[in-house]
Design a protein that fits this description.
This protein has 9 helices and 11 strands. It has helices at residues 2-24, 34-44, 54-58, 71-79, 121-135, 153-161, 175-188, 237-246, 270-279, and strands spanning 83-86, 89-92, 94-99, 102-107, 143-147, 167-172, 193-197, 208-213, 250-265, 285-293, 309-321. The strands form 3 sheets. A 7-stranded mixed beta sheet has the order 7-6-5-8-9-11-10, with helices on both faces.
Length: 323
């Protein structure tokens, strides 16, 4: 166990060095959907003779040669097993994306591993809508938690925008997500964000003024942690559990903000129907449901689990406990 911790700590320092190096080079990269990413990779495969840029190496995850990278950085990444090697070609084992002026470590493309850590278009949308929501609230929060935090991009972004708030916890079941979260938090210099390994709320103590989450919401046959939201409610089982358990953990005046995908069939929106039934049991709650994109992940409709689904929509659920 001590040896594993030492390796993790050593890799952590190497990844912090990588982030600092990229920051000095004014590195920026926006992560797009896997399908779009693959299209760009196919296009760039015809440019194999070109010298690779930092965006090619740490954004697009293209193969590169030893001479394409700063020698000190290359040696450090190789020493800490952060490069995949095949003949004289190398691939970074991580990606780095930018959001709100910050850089974030996350998993390399393609994200096929069970413990892959997600960052993508949902991250950008989630952070945007969360910040808009909090900017309109009349009072700050003192104790908050991000559930299914992944890279903790949302927590870091709101900690930057609302620096007067006291404590933010970031919780995830995936140890690699917590490792990357700690690196991202450390690089951002935010010492009031605390990563905790937890299956939703199981390892969290006390009540919260704010609970926010962008959980997995698809049915993934491989059940990858960043993607699989459970088999019930067409993948939105985890999202519903966060609401059901989360409303029990809110202080008076506390708020819950959930960004999730929901399915719509010829029988309507089952998630919304279940949500309405749940809210009837809590007359002290003010809540809203807003569909912000009517059609996402259309390719999933070809999968066996989605043959009864007409569309997958993006929704925001906002809940507040009446004082």
């Amino acid at each position: 166990m001590n040896q594993i911790l030492e390796i993790q700590s050593s890799q952590q320092q190497a990844l912090l060095y990588l982030l600092a190096f990229l920051k000095r080079q004014d590195y920026q990269f926006t992560t797009i959907t896997p399908l779009s990413h693959q299209r760009i990779l196919d296009r760039k495969s015809n440019e194999a003779h070109k010298e690779k840029t930092l965006q090619d190496i740490f954004g697009w995850n293209l193969s590169f040669k030893k001479t394409d990278l700063d020698p000190v950085l290359f040696a450090l990444l190789q020493e800490h097993q952060l490069l995949r090697i095949q003949k004289d070609q190398y691939w970074s084992q991580v990606r780095v994306s930018s959001l709100d002026g910050e850089l974030f470590i996350h998993s390399a493309f393609p994200t096929t591993q069970q413990d892959a850590v997600f960052f993508g278009p949902d991250t950008y949308r989630f952070v945007y809508h969360l910040k808009q929501y909090l900017a309109a609230q009349p009072r700050p929060f003192k104790r908050a938690v991000e559930i299914c935090c992944g890279t903790s991009a949302a927590a870091i972004s709101i900690a930057r925008q609302f620096p007067d708030n006291n404590e933010i916890m970031v919780a995830d079941l995936n140890p690699k997500a917590l490792l990357y979260s700690q690196i991202n938090i450390s690089f951002a210099g935010l010492n009031h964000l605390h990563p905790i390994q937890s299956n939703l709320f199981s390892s969290l103590e006390g009540q919260f003024d704010l609970i926010f989450a962008n959980p997995p919401y698809l049915i993934d046959p491989e059940q990858r942690q960043y993607r699989h939201g459970g088999n019930e409610l067409d993948g939105s089982e985890l999202s519903f559990r966060i609401i059901k358990e989360g409303v029990q953990r809110l202080n008076s005046g506390g708020r819950l903000f959930l960004y999730t995908g929901v399915t719509v069939t010829e029988h309507g929106n089952l998630f919304l129907q279940q949500l309405r039934n749940l809210m009837k049991q809590h007359p002290n709650l003010i809540w809203s449901y807003e569909e912000i994109d009517p059609d996402i992940f259309g390719e999933e409709l070809e999968q066996p689990a989605y043959q009864h689904v007409e569309r997958i929509a993006l929704a925001l659920i906002k809940i507040e406990v009446c004082d």
